[in-house]
């Protein structure tokens, strides 16, 4: 493990959670978008994380040979298969012949819960990063 490995691991968490918050913000911004470039309503997106290294042997091999550590990375940004919501609004330009409009499959309550979770995870990574930084500074002060 390198000297800055803890900071690198926390940094990967910060980057991943920031991307998660960006995707959630996009979902919230498009909660009323009934027509996208493909003519369909906006489809909710979500972020899937995975660990950088799959197993202990791989972690040891990468650490010893390449100096890389663990952490998290974004595996994919997926789209939610939940069906669109139908809302009765016969005056809407995107209403079908029965007067129903397909609305995005974004649940604003769920998005806010996800945003709070992402924020707390981001905050925890900042705290871990600062603790590691403080330990590194103390270790350097010992050498004086």
Describe the structure.
The protein is of the alpha+beta class. The chain has one domain (5-142). It is built from 3 helices and 4 strands. The longest helix has 35 residues, at 108-142.
Shape: elongated
Alpha-carbon distance between the two ends: 24 Å
Average residue pLDDT: 88
How would you characterize the largest beta sheet?
2 strands, antiparallel
Number of strands: 4
Strands of the widest sheet, in order across it, are 1-2
Give the SSE map.
Blueprint: H1 5-29, E1 45-51, H2 56-65, E2 72-79, E3 85-88, E4 100-103, H3 108-142
Antiparallel strand pairs: 1-2, 3-4
Helix pairs in contact: 1-3
Main features:
144 residues; alpha+beta; two-stranded antiparallel ribbon; 3 helices; 4 strands; 16% strand
Task: Provide a brief overview of the structure.
The protein is an alpha+beta fold. The chain is about 50% helix and about 15% strand.
């Amino acid at each position: 493990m390198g000297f800055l490995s803890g900071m690198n691991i926390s940094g990967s968490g910060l980057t991943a959670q920031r991307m998660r918050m960006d995707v959630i913000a996009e979902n919230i911004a498009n909660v009323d978008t009934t027509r996208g470039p493909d003519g369909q309503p906006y489809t909710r997106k979500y972020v899937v994380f995975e660990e950088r290294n799959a197993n202990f042997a791989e972690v040891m091999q990468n650490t010893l040979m390449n100096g890389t550590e663990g952490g998290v990375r974004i595996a994919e940004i997926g789209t939610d298969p939940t069906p669109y919501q139908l809302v009765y609004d016969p005056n809407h330009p995107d209403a079908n012949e029965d007067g129903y409009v397909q609305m995005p499959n974004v649940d604003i309550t769920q998005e806010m819960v996800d945003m709070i979770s992402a924020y707390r995870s981001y905050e925890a990574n900042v705290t871990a990063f600062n603790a590691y930084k403080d330990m590194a500074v103390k270790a350097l002060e010992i050498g004086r």
